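Minutes, project check-in
Item: structure for the 276-residue chain
Input as provided by the requester:
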Amino acid sequence: SFRMHIQTESALERIFNLLKDAPDIPSLNLCTAFILYILSSDILTSQMNSDIIHLMLDLINKSSSININDQEYKKMKERILILNNKSLPDDIFYEERFNTCDIILETFVNISHNNLNESSKDEIRILGGFDQIINAVYSIIQDLSNNDIECYSLSSLSLRYKKLCRFINMLEEFSNENSEQSSTLHLDINRMYIAQYNQYSLFHSLSKLLDLSLIWLQQYLSINESSAIGTDIKNLNMRHLFRDGCKTIMSILVIFTNDCEIYREVLIEEIKFVDT
Protein backbone atom coordinates (compact mmCIF):
# COMPACT_ATOMS: atom_id res chain seq x y z
CA SER A 1 0.00 0.00 0.00
CA PHE A 2 2.94 2.31 0.74
CA ARG A 3 4.35 1.69 -2.74
CA MET A 4 0.96 2.32 -4.36
CA HIS A 5 0.54 5.56 -2.44
CA ILE A 6 3.88 7.08 -3.40
CA GLN A 7 3.34 6.27 -7.07
CA THR A 8 0.66 8.94 -7.14
CA GLU A 9 1.53 12.30 -8.64
CA SER A 10 4.07 14.31 -6.60
CA ALA A 11 3.81 11.94 -3.62
CA LEU A 12 7.49 11.01 -3.74
CA GLU A 13 8.50 14.64 -4.09
CA ARG A 14 6.42 15.59 -1.04
CA ILE A 15 7.99 12.79 0.99
CA PHE A 16 11.51 13.92 0.19
CA ASN A 17 10.63 17.54 0.93
CA LEU A 18 9.66 16.38 4.43
CA LEU A 19 12.98 14.58 4.74
CA LYS A 20 15.25 17.50 3.88
CA ASP A 21 16.57 17.61 7.45
CA ALA A 22 17.09 13.84 7.58
CA PRO A 23 20.87 13.88 6.94
CA ASP A 24 21.46 15.85 10.15
CA ILE A 25 19.51 13.54 12.48
CA PRO A 26 21.32 10.21 13.12
CA SER A 27 18.31 7.90 13.35
CA LEU A 28 16.45 9.63 10.51
CA ASN A 29 19.60 9.59 8.38
CA LEU A 30 19.76 5.79 8.55
CA CYS A 31 16.00 5.37 8.15
CA THR A 32 15.88 7.60 5.06
CA ALA A 33 18.74 5.69 3.47
CA PHE A 34 16.86 2.44 3.98
CA ILE A 35 13.65 3.90 2.52
CA LEU A 36 15.63 4.91 -0.57
CA TYR A 37 16.97 1.38 -0.85
CA ILE A 38 13.49 -0.14 -0.59
CA LEU A 39 12.25 2.18 -3.34
CA SER A 40 15.25 1.71 -5.60
CA SER A 41 14.07 -1.51 -7.23
CA ASP A 42 11.25 0.24 -9.08
CA ILE A 43 9.69 3.57 -8.04
CA LEU A 44 12.89 5.49 -7.32
CA THR A 45 14.50 4.48 -10.61
CA SER A 46 11.64 5.83 -12.67
CA GLN A 47 11.59 9.13 -10.76
CA MET A 48 15.33 9.66 -10.31
CA ASN A 49 16.32 13.31 -10.37
CA SER A 50 19.01 15.68 -9.19
CA ASP A 51 17.34 16.37 -5.82
CA ILE A 52 17.21 12.68 -4.92
CA ILE A 53 20.86 12.16 -5.89
CA HIS A 54 21.84 15.18 -3.79
CA LEU A 55 19.90 13.74 -0.84
CA MET A 56 21.63 10.36 -1.19
CA LEU A 57 25.13 11.82 -1.18
CA ASP A 58 24.25 14.27 1.60
CA LEU A 59 23.09 11.34 3.73
CA ILE A 60 26.46 9.64 3.20
CA ASN A 61 28.50 12.77 3.91
CA LYS A 62 26.59 13.64 7.08
CA SER A 63 26.66 10.02 8.30
CA SER A 64 30.44 10.18 8.77
CA SER A 65 29.93 12.37 11.85
CA ILE A 66 27.12 10.29 13.36
CA ASN A 67 27.58 9.03 16.90
CA ILE A 68 26.87 5.32 16.46
CA ASN A 69 26.26 5.07 20.21
CA ASP A 70 23.33 7.48 20.00
CA GLN A 71 20.42 5.60 21.56
CA GLU A 72 17.85 6.56 18.92
CA TYR A 73 20.29 5.60 16.19
CA LYS A 74 20.94 2.21 17.78
CA LYS A 75 17.21 1.56 18.13
CA MET A 76 16.60 2.48 14.50
CA LYS A 77 19.44 0.26 13.32
CA GLU A 78 18.08 -2.67 15.32
CA ARG A 79 14.57 -2.18 13.89
CA ILE A 80 15.85 -2.00 10.31
CA LEU A 81 18.04 -5.06 10.74
CA ILE A 82 15.05 -7.03 12.05
CA LEU A 83 12.99 -5.87 9.07
CA ASN A 84 15.84 -6.70 6.73
CA ASN A 85 16.22 -10.21 8.14
CA LYS A 86 12.51 -10.89 7.86
CA SER A 87 11.64 -9.34 4.53
CA LEU A 88 14.70 -8.89 2.31
CA PRO A 89 17.17 -11.26 0.65
CA ASP A 90 19.79 -12.44 3.13
CA ASP A 91 22.76 -11.90 0.85
CA ILE A 92 22.79 -8.08 0.64
CA PHE A 93 23.70 -6.56 4.03
CA TYR A 94 25.79 -7.74 6.96
CA GLU A 95 25.86 -6.06 10.34
CA GLU A 96 29.55 -5.04 10.38
CA ARG A 97 29.00 -2.77 7.38
CA PHE A 98 25.37 -1.88 7.96
CA ASN A 99 25.42 1.91 7.81
CA THR A 100 24.10 4.74 5.68
CA CYS A 101 26.96 4.60 3.20
CA ASP A 102 26.56 0.89 2.50
CA ILE A 103 22.78 1.20 2.17
CA ILE A 104 23.08 4.07 -0.32
CA LEU A 105 25.72 2.19 -2.33
CA GLU A 106 23.38 -0.80 -2.58
CA THR A 107 20.71 1.69 -3.70
CA PHE A 108 23.09 2.85 -6.45
CA VAL A 109 23.57 -0.82 -7.41
CA ASN A 110 19.86 -1.11 -8.08
CA ILE A 111 19.46 2.12 -10.03
CA SER A 112 22.65 1.55 -12.07
CA HIS A 113 20.96 -1.41 -13.79
CA ASN A 114 18.36 0.86 -15.37
CA ASN A 115 20.24 2.91 -17.95
CA LEU A 116 20.77 6.10 -15.95
CA ASN A 117 20.97 9.14 -18.17
CA GLU A 118 24.16 11.12 -18.56
CA SER A 119 23.11 13.93 -16.25
CA SER A 120 22.40 11.49 -13.39
CA LYS A 121 25.78 9.83 -13.83
CA ASP A 122 27.40 13.26 -13.87
CA GLU A 123 25.63 14.23 -10.64
CA ILE A 124 26.77 11.03 -8.92
CA ARG A 125 30.36 11.58 -10.07
CA ILE A 126 30.50 15.29 -9.23
CA LEU A 127 28.98 14.81 -5.77
CA GLY A 128 31.48 12.10 -4.85
CA GLY A 129 29.46 8.97 -5.52
CA PHE A 130 32.20 7.28 -7.52
CA ASP A 131 34.64 8.05 -4.70
CA GLN A 132 32.39 6.30 -2.19
CA ILE A 133 32.07 3.18 -4.36
CA ILE A 134 35.82 2.88 -5.01
CA ASN A 135 36.63 3.50 -1.35
CA ALA A 136 34.14 0.80 -0.32
CA VAL A 137 35.74 -1.70 -2.72
CA TYR A 138 39.13 -0.91 -1.21
CA SER A 139 37.83 -1.19 2.36
CA ILE A 140 36.20 -4.60 1.89
CA ILE A 141 39.26 -6.00 0.08
CA GLN A 142 41.51 -4.76 2.88
CA ASP A 143 39.22 -6.46 5.37
CA LEU A 144 39.46 -9.75 3.47
CA SER A 145 43.20 -9.55 2.81
CA ASN A 146 44.05 -8.73 6.43
CA ASN A 147 42.34 -11.89 7.66
CA ASP A 148 42.89 -15.52 6.84
CA ILE A 149 40.08 -17.08 4.84
CA GLU A 150 39.45 -19.43 7.75
CA CYS A 151 38.43 -16.45 9.91
CA TYR A 152 35.17 -16.30 8.00
CA SER A 153 32.36 -18.79 7.72
CA LEU A 154 31.38 -19.68 4.16
CA SER A 155 28.30 -17.47 4.43
CA SER A 156 30.29 -14.49 5.77
CA LEU A 157 32.92 -14.77 3.05
CA SER A 158 30.23 -15.17 0.40
CA LEU A 159 28.38 -12.06 1.63
CA ARG A 160 31.48 -9.91 1.43
CA TYR A 161 32.62 -11.28 -1.90
CA LYS A 162 29.20 -10.88 -3.53
CA LYS A 163 29.02 -7.29 -2.31
CA LEU A 164 32.39 -6.60 -3.90
CA CYS A 165 31.23 -8.06 -7.20
CA ARG A 166 28.06 -5.96 -7.11
CA PHE A 167 30.06 -2.78 -6.54
CA ILE A 168 32.51 -3.66 -9.32
CA ASN A 169 29.64 -4.40 -11.70
CA MET A 170 28.13 -1.04 -10.73
CA LEU A 171 31.34 0.77 -11.67
CA GLU A 172 31.27 -1.07 -14.97
CA GLU A 173 27.68 0.08 -15.53
CA PHE A 174 28.75 3.68 -14.89
CA SER A 175 31.54 3.23 -17.43
CA ASN A 176 29.39 1.73 -20.17
CA GLU A 177 27.08 3.19 -22.77
CA ASN A 178 23.38 3.20 -21.98
CA SER A 179 20.35 2.92 -24.22
CA GLU A 180 20.46 6.65 -24.87
CA GLN A 181 23.86 6.21 -26.52
CA SER A 182 26.06 8.17 -24.16
CA SER A 183 28.43 10.54 -25.85
CA THR A 184 32.05 9.53 -26.16
CA LEU A 185 32.96 12.58 -24.07
CA HIS A 186 30.84 11.46 -21.11
CA LEU A 187 32.13 7.90 -21.31
CA ASP A 188 35.71 9.13 -21.37
CA ILE A 189 35.14 11.44 -18.40
CA ASN A 190 33.54 8.71 -16.28
CA ARG A 191 36.12 6.08 -17.17
CA MET A 192 38.99 8.50 -16.64
CA TYR A 193 37.64 9.57 -13.25
CA ILE A 194 37.07 6.01 -12.04
CA ALA A 195 40.44 4.80 -13.32
CA GLN A 196 42.53 7.70 -12.03
CA TYR A 197 40.77 8.31 -8.72
CA ASN A 198 43.23 8.39 -5.81
CA GLN A 199 46.22 7.42 -7.96
CA TYR A 200 44.57 4.42 -9.65
CA SER A 201 43.23 3.08 -6.36
CA LEU A 202 40.71 0.85 -8.14
CA PHE A 203 43.42 -0.86 -10.19
CA HIS A 204 45.40 -1.59 -7.02
CA SER A 205 42.27 -3.02 -5.39
CA LEU A 206 41.27 -5.13 -8.37
CA SER A 207 44.73 -6.63 -8.78
CA LYS A 208 44.71 -7.57 -5.09
CA LEU A 209 41.22 -9.05 -5.33
CA LEU A 210 42.11 -11.05 -8.42
CA ASP A 211 45.13 -12.44 -6.60
CA LEU A 212 43.01 -13.40 -3.58
CA SER A 213 40.28 -14.86 -5.79
CA LEU A 214 42.69 -17.17 -7.58
CA ILE A 215 44.22 -18.29 -4.27
CA TRP A 216 40.80 -19.02 -2.79
CA LEU A 217 39.66 -20.75 -5.96
CA GLN A 218 42.68 -23.03 -5.80
CA GLN A 219 42.05 -23.74 -2.13
CA TYR A 220 38.50 -24.86 -2.80
CA LEU A 221 39.62 -26.92 -5.77
CA SER A 222 42.09 -28.67 -3.48
CA ILE A 223 39.39 -29.29 -0.87
CA ASN A 224 37.16 -30.94 -3.45
CA GLU A 225 39.99 -33.03 -4.89
CA SER A 226 40.84 -34.35 -1.44
CA SER A 227 37.24 -35.28 -0.64
CA ALA A 228 36.87 -39.01 -0.38
CA ILE A 229 33.29 -39.21 -1.56
CA GLY A 230 31.59 -36.84 -3.96
CA THR A 231 31.79 -33.07 -3.99
CA ASP A 232 30.58 -30.92 -1.14
CA ILE A 233 27.90 -28.64 -2.58
CA LYS A 234 28.96 -25.66 -0.45
CA ASN A 235 32.54 -25.89 -1.67
CA LEU A 236 31.28 -26.21 -5.22
CA ASN A 237 29.23 -23.03 -4.79
CA MET A 238 32.28 -21.19 -3.49
CA ARG A 239 34.29 -22.35 -6.48
CA HIS A 240 31.64 -20.95 -8.79
CA LEU A 241 31.57 -17.72 -6.76
CA PHE A 242 35.31 -17.12 -7.08
CA ARG A 243 35.35 -18.17 -10.72
CA ASP A 244 32.56 -15.73 -11.55
CA GLY A 245 34.33 -13.08 -9.46
CA CYS A 246 37.46 -13.44 -11.57
CA LYS A 247 35.31 -12.90 -14.68
CA THR A 248 33.80 -9.77 -13.11
CA ILE A 249 37.25 -8.35 -12.35
CA MET A 250 38.61 -9.11 -15.80
CA SER A 251 35.54 -7.65 -17.49
CA ILE A 252 35.99 -4.17 -16.00
CA LEU A 253 39.75 -4.28 -16.55
CA VAL A 254 39.19 -5.02 -20.24
CA ILE A 255 36.91 -1.98 -20.51
CA PHE A 256 39.50 0.34 -18.99
CA THR A 257 42.58 -1.03 -20.77
CA ASN A 258 41.14 -1.93 -24.17
CA ASP A 259 42.19 1.29 -25.89
CA CYS A 260 44.35 3.03 -23.30
CA GLU A 261 48.06 2.29 -23.20
CA ILE A 262 48.55 4.29 -19.99
CA TYR A 263 46.07 2.14 -18.06
CA ARG A 264 47.67 -1.02 -19.39
CA GLU A 265 51.04 0.18 -18.13
CA VAL A 266 49.58 0.93 -14.70
CA LEU A 267 48.29 -2.64 -14.47
CA ILE A 268 51.58 -4.10 -15.65
CA GLU A 269 53.30 -2.27 -12.82
CA GLU A 270 51.09 -4.08 -10.34
CA ILE A 271 53.25 -6.97 -9.20
CA LYS A 272 50.37 -9.12 -8.05
CA PHE A 273 48.54 -8.60 -11.31
CA VAL A 274 51.61 -9.70 -13.29
CA ASP A 275 52.04 -12.74 -11.04
CA THR A 276 48.51 -13.90 -11.86
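Outcome recorded: The chain has two domains: 1-114, 116-276.
No further action items on this chain.
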